[in-house]
Model the fold of this input.
Amino acid sequence: MTTPPQPEGSPEFAEKIRQQPIDGLALKNLTSAALTWLRTNHEIVNALNVFPVPDGDTGTNMVLTMQSAYDEIENTPKFRVGEVANDLAQGALMGARGNSGVILSQLWRGFARALDGQDVINGQTLANAFATARDTAYKGVVRPVEGTILTVAKDIAAAAKAALAITSDPFEILEIVVEAADASVEYTPELLDVLKDAGVVDAGGKGLFFILEGMLRFSKGMSLDTAVATVQPLSAIKLEGAMQTVEPGQDYEVVIDFRPDKPLVLEKYFGALEEMGTSIQIGEGDGMYRMHIHVPTEKRYEPIDYTMTVGTITKVHMENLLAQIGDIERDRQTQPLKLAPVEPGQIAVVSISPGQGIANVFASLGAAAIVEGGQTMNPSTQDILHAFENLPTDKIIILPNNKNIILAARAATEVTVKQTAVIPSRSVPQGLSALLRLVPDGDFDAVVQDMTSALDDVQTGEITTATRSVEIDGVSVEEGEIIVLHNGKLILSSDDLQDACLGFLEKADIEDYELITLFYGVDLPKTEAFRVADVIREKYPDHEIEVQYGGQPHYQFIISIE
Amino acid sequence: MRIGIVTDSTADVPPEIVAQHQIEVIPAIIVMEGKSLVDGKDISRGEFYEKLPTLETLPTTAAPSSGAFHSAYERLFQEGAQAILSLHVASQLSGMYNTAKMAAQAFGERVHIFDSRSVSMGLGFQVIAAAEAVTQSLSVEKIIHHLQAVRDKIRVIAMLDTLENIRRSGRVSWLTARIGSLLNIKLFVEVLDGAVLNLGQARTRRKGIAHLEELIRKLGKLERLAILHSNAEADARQLLADLNLDLSTSPHIVNVTPVIGVHVGVNGLGIAAVLK
Done:
């Protein structure tokens, strides 16, 4: 992954940009700007989470998708806009992560299709490209839902077409389109109740807005990399996720909760922190602030000292990130994954797994390849493709095991010559249930059908900690509480893990089921997992209870009832 | 022409049929706790399965010696047989076939060794078909031709209640990776053309038996049926009742040979059938 060069931002440069036709090089620069602006604002997009669960981060997914698109053309010698757009679409597809990433890649695909054979983009071709982008994205989704990125794409296309009546200048059209995108994003809660209930706009739509706005800002010579000092909801700051992006030299993570003595001047506070470290995030809730930063060892106390000058510190959390990463590496080394062997002509299963323990279980049940990924780390189309490309068979079945990965898995099936199918498993228990039905030497279509029908043989419980306070599906949740999702739907919250588990089993109506399997997460001590299992065993003596190490992040338990 | 029929104890042919058709059964050898035991003679199947789960070292099985085959063939010829058909467990799964072949060399063209490519009653039904053909005074060539047709219609499907034995015995290559698996996994296997195929899995015995029933029904109309089990007779009887199949011959219920039981473990359940 490379960082795109910063486009020059002077008004003169902008003027030059606007006067020249949009050829391949100009499109490259615009894409670079779009990527930079999206990256600058991706935490805002990440914070637009409907469910109060640590979910696939839409902003991160879209950045990674755009990055992959840009990587494809960064060093391109091509200058015809059609060719560059086509390469961008290809890069976006391979890097597509999460549902928004996949839809974004389809928007690029449609956009490129309209530009096929074109040297430059003019007003008419731009409007056409937005229209085919919309059509391609809608076609790529089985059941399009309004109030999402799709709606924004539709409104963009409509705005571009209408703008043609006023102007034929592509940059003027872009300006109108960005305004329309903004309005469309703001309107998404009116179309989709879950957004309204959660008090957020659609994250994917917002990401698309930033992409277009980045292009517009570039054409106006406005800066792209200065973080607009935005305050996020506290929940948007994910401490665990930060570990994956430790920069060399930034060894310590410092998180400070504080209450400012007088109204906080964000830009100033942010600026001071930038002198100390990286990965800065600031959240606010009820007048309380939380600041997150990565700093080098010698500066680990500086954020604390500085924050004391602006307010009263209530809590400080400090962690040595490198030591933690060492722990993770060690854990990985102790458990080698033994994948099922597969022979030419047999059906091989590729399974996406959110944890090492769960990966082992999938492998033990016959998965031939595992792709790491889950709630907060959606694998890209390419990650999935790589997993099965080298398997010695042409018959591949993919188990996404997460609703945010299904589209990326489907996208992978579209860029391979192998015979492939995606079983739309939305949870780990569903994936395991389907995998049980794998008959490696069976008829491909029959096996796919049989595995798909097994998805509903199980009930899924997912137990995690609420990342923010919200009321959804009639359940009121406080940030930090334990919450339970039953087959993907939020059903209860509790301040106690054991009560949450018991409450779930009660609501799940498990009388007709025999076996309860608890996969405990990487952060839950084994003794605690077994203690909760014993409580369940006592309450449900007629059921078999099995406890397995799942190793998934964020989720204390993933529970399978079958 | 008098034709003698020989098989081995892994065929699981019910004793009354063995007696009726005067089938010569050569017992397999089970090596357990350091002792060599003759299948069905030194140890009963009930005894074997009672002990199996308690053993620290898995028993092993051995093909009878070439001499055992040789003396059986010799005796049959002395008793007046003019040719011998010797049918055995799948050559891919056991050394029995090769041992028989070696012993047969001494008798030239008179002994025909037939590879059943199956196990238990999958072999047993071929033995019975051979014995029945003999009573119709067919030539050895015609009988073998007939057996090849029967062999194509043989199906053997089983549900393993535990993966422990088959994993430890190391006989099935695709299972070697299955360490650290979930408990409660029931594995379905099919023995077809001498290969052990993976027919999928289930969790919990109840679901497993329901799935087994489904697999059996998918076979379509059956001419003959044997319910196979490894010390799970009650379940075997229940399965037969639940299947409620319309059969022209009466079905058998067989506690399978320890030679297979070693790999299957206790509480396995399955069928051998001849398709219509």
Remarks:
- The interface with chain B takes residues 338-341, 360-361, 363-366, 432, 435-441, 450, 457, 514-515, 517, 544, 546, 548, 562 of chain A (CB under 8 Å).
- The longest helix of chain A spans residues 24-46.
- Residues 232-327 of chain A form a domain with the Alpha-Beta Plaits fold (CATH 3.30.70.260).
